[in-house]
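for the writeup, i need someone to sanity check this before i put it in the appendix. the sequnce is what the collaborator sent (i think, or maybe the updated version? ugh). structure was predicted straight from it, no edits. if anything looks off just tell me and ill rerun, i have time this weekend
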Amino acid sequence: MYRHQHENDTVLPVFTQPLSPNGGESCSHLPEELIIEILLRLPVKSLLQLKCICKLWKTLISNPQFVKQHLLISNAKPSLTHQRLFFSFMTDPRQLLSYPLKPLFQNLLPPVSSSGTMKYWIIGSCNGLLCLYGQSRHCFKLHNPSIMFKSKKSPSAASLDWISNQYGFGYDQVNDKYKVLLVVRNMNDPTQTLTKVYTFGDDSWKTIQNFHLTPIRPSGQFVSGTLNWIVKKRGAGSNQSMILSFDLEKETYKEILVPQDDADKVYGDTLYVLNNCLGVCYETNQTHWVAWLMKEYGVFDSWTKFITIPLDKFNKPLCFLIPLFISENCVVLLVNKYNSHFILFNLNSGELDYSWDYFIKSVFNFRRNLHICSESLVSL
């Protein structure tokens, strides 16, 4: 259905079938290829409105191949305008709240949106989908807030006398499947654990090999078709941190070395993903806070020191500071995941900005349950 238009440019898909099948009227006198080029670069909100123009455009915009190509183009150059911060506000019942990312970079008061109350909380996001976890019954569902899509919930992964230890959500690009990994422990026998994988669209869980090392924190970070956790590899006098990687396609594990400068300082909440790269960050020798990025996933030599900030520049305790997003003009949004403080750091000038973090802290005590979700047309 699609072909490559430019060899050295972004893939620009072009329909080889006419836009007006069976002699139907087109909604425009523009060339078919140009219509598609324009539509692929429009935001999701505009595309949803255009689906109401005519049946032809509704069919086109709903086409799975169009959805994938729109996602590829959007992900190639993420825009602040089309990103939102989501978190489950820990009330009873929980609330799913969000606010746009762009105002935070402009020191503006962000408008808050609520998706109402629910029994689920967010464990991950990918391609515009939020993965929601019902902890009491160990079940999951997907939600795309951009198009108001919600999947049916998964079957329960375990009975109520099991509790969750680790979890992660991501995309298996090879098989075009979204998957959840869940590790549960028997409350009556803490030595007994089960590791299960659920593929959305299927209706059953698959039991796989257990972790050979125990991650420090429960939530796995998704990048490049893998889920990743920090683990401590003990033995022979060593207490070195490693990254335990789970391949969502092959459903196998491997270990990845962290930067060796201060490997003993890397702990569970220092793992993050930025610009589709895995990263670690930490304080070094009580003098600096540093952040690293692995520019090529799984390649140790691609670790690159991304940010170095003297600790005396911070006017608040750091605790668990991690990068969340980087804008086109090289401003990085940082968040302290344990006291809800946000910080802007300008890579060019080295300046820090705390001007609006008091508002964020006073309204949203989200702690670790924070996820950036991009707008997309993706559903199952």
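The CA atoms of residues 31 and 81 lie 29 Å apart. The two ends are 20 Å apart (CA to CA).
thx in advance!!
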